[in-house]
Amino acid sequence: xxxxxxxxxxxxxxxxxxxxxxxxxxxxxxxxxxxxxxxxxxxxxxxxxxxxxxxxxxxxxxxxxxxxxxxxxxxxxxxxxxxxxxxxxxxxxxxxxxxxxxxxxxxxxxxxxxxxxxxxxxxxxxxxxxxxxxxxxxxxxxxxxxxxxxxxxxxxxxxxxxxxxxxxxxxxxxxxxxxxxxxxxxxxxxxxxxxxxxxxxxxxxxxxxxxxxxxxxxxxxxxxxxxxxxxxxxxxxxxxxxxxxxxxxxxxxxxxxxxxxxxxxxxxxxxxxxxxxxxxxxxxxxxxxxxxxxxxxxxxxxxxxxxxxxxxxxxxxxxxxxxxxxxxxxxxxxxxxxxxxxxxxxxxxxxxxxxxxxxxxxxxxxxxxxxxxxxxxxx
Length: 379
Description:
The protein is an alpha/beta fold.
């Protein structure tokens, strides 16, 4: 059986976790937390980074930093994980869903301005499969209307837009280190990126449960107390130690994943040229970080058949998101904002993801592609 995902272990995780245990500092913001945060700041030029317990928590911190009020609107793609929307709904904002592009599942920047009203405060683009949205267009619209941009870069570690690291283009960014991502912090984990100095001090306060504890430990104040809202966003030092082992091997991990991606892309070109499937498109302004390889089938029935056929052959190939604007929760609570988003619905019905993980072999990719070709030769 070829699984869809298998977390990769470099071999150093347990060693660094053991080291963290015997430092006597387990509650976070210790040696490994600081090493991980500095890695992202130095390698990608992010102004300030804070590890979080999950990508969802990183997004929730972003939403809190945006200082939203009831009635404020946030534009979010409908074809995304629920955390992107929930982070803003929890702050009392109204989520306005945007449609995808025809060429890839990312938010369509050309249709963005039509969604903006006097109540709009934030645009939250999602870099689907680690492929950049059109950030120049999004930032231009945001600047024109004095809006904040929160990048959901959950899938976009080590990916770039015109040479600039994703997560570092907008005012704020959020990464995920869930076990399904390119690198993991031991199953769960995330990173908040602050690119606007206005948010740095408050981000540390939110991170430390609403206290100015981080300033106290830096010696900036002689005592600390409760000064704002916040939560327990800071992860354990154990998670940071696990993540550090992954970061040390990031280049090797990325090279392997990208080689797998290229093998899928090469093997399936013939099917794509005949119009049976659509393959991922990487715009000129974007790079490919090897996070995901997907196919877009012609209809729901065909995708259902392909998933079942691959399962019979011992290959796990799941579909992905359902359109959030059609979810039971959103329709029940925000039905007045529901509109037709046909491209989001198309991806929800037609997109299927291929197995992608470090230990997957090129020969296994060849086998999977042979099964896909067999399915279409029969159908």
